[in-house]
Amino acid sequence: MKKYELSSFAYICVAGLLFASSTVADDLSDAVKELEINVKNVQGSAEVADAAGKGDMEKLKGTIMKRDVLDAAKDEFANAKKAADAKGMQAASEKADKALKQDFTSAGQGKALGKRKNSGGTPGDPYDPVFMDDMPWKTGLQRIVNKKEWANFWKAGKSGNDRFGGGRFGDRDATPE
Amino acid sequence: MNRSYFIWGLMVALSGTFLMANPAVGQNQEMVSQTVTALTEAENAVDAARAAINRGKELYLMIPEDSPMFTDVAQVLEEASKNWKIAIASLDGAKESASKVTTASSESIANDYALLAKVNAGVALSGAKVVEISIAYVDAIANNKTEALGVIRIAMRDALEVTSQIQANYERIKALIADKYSK
Hints:
The complex is a heterodimer of chains A (about 180) and B (about 180). Chain A has about 180 residues and is mainly α. Helix content of chain A is about 65%, strand content about 0%. Chain A has helices spanning about 1-55, 55-80, 85-100, 140-155. In chain B, about 90% of the residues lie in helices and about 0% in strands. The interface of A and B includes residues 7, 18 and 55 of A.
């Protein structure tokens, strides 16, 4: 009986040790990811400054878009960290990594997914919805709102906002060609 | 007696599962390759910043001393100087940590050295980028690029804000690693 109590205690100690070491490893991994996201953010700022200094407006627009995505990734990481959401932190980290490597001057010109063809530069039905998934919107919410707005616009064949005199813009039946 | 064997068996199984589930072994090679990439990137950024500083010296001389932007330039160069020191020290730290990876007494220590090298390289890279932004700012003033000035000023402010967070991240990582060996 005494032997069992000792073993049980040892088991608890080992389990505690394993738990503690895995928690430290998680903390460390999260801290490294956060540092890397921040470093990428500074790299993004440097790209903006470089483009502005060279007076390259096209590149500047692209680098500002990139900076927005890097900012969004940074915010998403911070939120995921607060919520202890490991998957969210990983996703934010990957988003920043992808954004830094991406050339945003060609945003929207890339190859579309699926059967959609009207993503720019390729032949297709001009009334196909524009491929929106990779557009560098500042926040996830904004992206969702914009996507919804565009979907409504194309579906209805008119502007989604009648308050500003919309209703005819984009109406395919009224379009001369 | 049987119960005792069961508990010990469970402990062994749990430890075995932990070791098998621990991806550190498989990640070792990946970590080393990531460290090498980070070091190369940091070295390139520091070299680019060094070239920018040399260019900055000439640009600085182009700005008249009675220029209303002269105070701005002085502040920006002060920040550049601080970040340059950080970049150089961090790059040295990264190289030193990287050199210890192969001679470490255990895989865990080797991984931590690789990690330290990687984060030091990150700090060096961000410091070098701040230097580049600072020189872009001086260039914009020296060459009257007024349209660019506002954009570069915002980029500089953002970068400085984030570099202070990077310093905090770095201190936390160092503390977490040190914690592992202080027990």
